[in-house]
Amino acid sequence: MADERSNVPPSAEPPPGGYGHAPANRGTNGVAIGALVLGLLSVPLGLFVIGGLLGLLAIILGFVGVKKANQMAGSGKGMAITGIVSGLLGLALAVAITLFGVALFNNPEVQREIQRQQELQETPTG
User: Fold this and answer.
1) DSSP single-letter state for residue 73
2) What is the pLDDT of residues 50-68, one digit of tens each?
3) Nearest-CA neighbor of 32 among 7, 61, 5, 9?
4) SS3 content of the chain, % helix, strand, coil (to 5)
5) Is 85 helix (H, G, I), strand (E, B) or coil?
6) In the 8-state DSSP scheme, what is residue 4?
7) Domains in the chain: how many in total?
8) For residues 66 and 78, what is the distance between their CA atoms, to the nearest angstrom?
9) Is the CB of residue 26 less than 8 Å from the CB of residue 68?
10) Of 5, 39, 60, 100, which one has the fewest beta carbons inside 10 Å?
C-alpha cells in the first residue's frame, strides 16, 4: 500500500504560525487613575468645599498623569485627561456655589430677615 501523502503536491502556503508573543505589559499609570477618581468625585461633591479641593487635586494629578502617559506610550492618557476635565468641572461648581452663598448672605434683605428670625426666636410667646 503506497503512502497517499506522497502523491499530494506541496502547499504553496507555509503552515500557519503560532499565536506569537504576548503583548508587552505597558504598566499601569496610577497617577492617571488617581486623577480620574478624584475628578469624578469632585463633580457631585462640588456642592461643598471638599469638591473644590478634590477638583484641584484631580487637575494637578491629571497633568502629571498626562506627562507620565507620554513616557509610557500613552498608557492612561485618556483617564488623565478625563480627570483634568472633571476636576475643572468640580472646581468650577464649588467656586460658583461658594460665590453664590457669599452673595446671598451679604444681601441686606437676607441680613434683615435673618435678624428678624433671630428676634422671633428670642421673644417668648404665650
Assistant:
1) T
2) 999 999 999 999 999 999 9
3) 61
4) 70, 0, 30
5) helix
6) G
7) 1
8) 8
9) no
10) 5
